[in-house]
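Tokens in:
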């Protein structure tokens, strides 16, 4: 998002406004989620340890960090490369023009659709959302909502590393709901 906005000559005040809104929403929702999760979910320290990843991948981290780190990096890189390649082929096939026709002048649908675009696990979604905003297909609130959902390749890594699929789905649905609700609210608050 940021490189595209800078290359298109978007004003610094608008860029700071976008970043400020994203930070504010992130802080507010993070605090709310932390409060809720601390109240309803018991934390299992064993699940949060890096050893569980190493045990699953049989990498023998205790024998040396470099070999294990390289193995983990290569595994994640190959996984991300394959998924990103497939997604880019799909996006190229669908085309940005078709995406724009689906969301133009439909506030709720555009928020839902921007959320789906935001779930694309690579930087293509940020590019698409920013370009659609700069082309006046999406308004600022919808773009921000879609960008809030985007976690880059983080979701791919989450599904690869965390084998609790129910938890992964809750995280993705939570991201989606936060982005869509934010987009709907921001459409009416931001002029």
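Residues out:
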């Amino acid at each position: 998002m940021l490189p595209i906005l800078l290359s298109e000559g978007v004003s610094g005040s608008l860029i700071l406004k976008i970043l400020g809104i994203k930070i504010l929403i992130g802080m507010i929702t993070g605090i709310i989620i932390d409060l809720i999760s601390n109240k309803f979910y018991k934390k299992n320290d064993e699940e949060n340890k890096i050893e569980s990843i190493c045990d699953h991948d049989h990498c023998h981290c205790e024998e040396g960090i470099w070999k294990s780190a390289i193995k983990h990096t290569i595994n994640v890189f190959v996984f991300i490369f394959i998924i990103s390649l497939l997604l880019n082929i799909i996006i190229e096939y669908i085309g940005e023009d078709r995406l724009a026709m689906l969301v133009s002048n439909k506030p709720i649908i555009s928020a839902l659709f921007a959320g789906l675009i935001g779930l694309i696990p690579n930087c293509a979604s940020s590019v698409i959302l920013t370009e659609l905003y700069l082309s006046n297909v999406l308004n600022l609130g919808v773009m921000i909502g879609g960008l809030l959902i985007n976690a880059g390749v983080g979701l791919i890594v989450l599904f690869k590393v965390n084998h609790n699929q129910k938890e992964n789905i809750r995280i993705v649905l939570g991201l989606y709901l936060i982005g869509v609700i934010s987009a709907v609210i921001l459409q009416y608050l931001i002029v």
